[in-house]
Amino acid sequence: MSYARFGPSSDVYVYGDIAGYVACCGCILSDQWDFHSAAEIVAHLREHVAAGHNVPENLLDESLYPDEDFVAECSIHLCRRDKGHGGEHTPIAGWPDADRHEAIRTKQLGGA
After folding, report:
1. 100 — phi, psi (to 5°)?
2. pTM to 2 decimals?
3. How far apart (Å, rounded) are the C-alpha atoms in residues 61 and 105?
4. Kind plus residue range of the DSSP H or E element containing 105
5. Which residues fall within 8 angstroms of residue 5, CB to CB, at 6 or more apart?
6. Of 70, 72, 103, 112, whose CB has the highest number of CB atoms within 10 Å?
7. Buried b / exposed e across 82-102, counting CB within 10 Å, b at 16+?
8. According to the 3-state scheme, what is the secondary structure of 3-65?
9. DSSP 3-state assignment of 2?
10. Are 83 and 89 in contact (CB under 8 A)?
């Protein structure tokens, strides 16, 4: 999910990455793009503000970033590590191809 993209009102591109962090993509301040808590990304974005960059005001609110943004997804089975990844690989309900992913899961667990 993208929180902000480069444009007339934003000098930052911020999104939640499936690897379990919020990214400041193409960051013009530093080489670090990955932030692993709401406090970290907000502190980083405040550095952008201090440098005179356009940062949408709502990005400075820690409550904007849900805990799920800091938990990696399993990109093969479309599950979250905290909800089935530890070997069970339960697919997220409602995803396209959920049946195909369930078949992969069943095969890997030794089912039919």
Report:
1. -65, -40
2. 0.67
3. 38
4. helix 98-108
5. 13
6. 70
7. eebbeeebbbeeeeeeeeebe
8. EECCECCECCEEEEECCCEEEEECCCCCCCCEECCHHHHHHHHHHHHHCCCCCCHHHHCHHHC
9. strand
10. no
Cα gap 41→47, rounded to integer Å = 10
pLDDT in tens, the chain (112 residues): 799 999 999 999 999 987 788 999 999 998 888 999 999 999 999 999 999 999 999 999 999 999 888 876 665 545 555 554 444 455 555 555 566 656 655 654 455 4
Map tokens 């993509």 to a residue: 25
Task: Take residue 100 and report the two structure tokens written for it.
Answer: 């195909």
At 68 the three-state DSSP class reads helix
Query: 5 near 13, Cβ under 8 Å?
Result: yes
**What is the rounded CA–CA span in Å between residue 102 and residue 97?**
9
Domain layout of the chain by residue ranges: 2-108
- 34 by Cβ neighbours in 10 Å (0-12 / 13-18 / 19+) ranks as middle
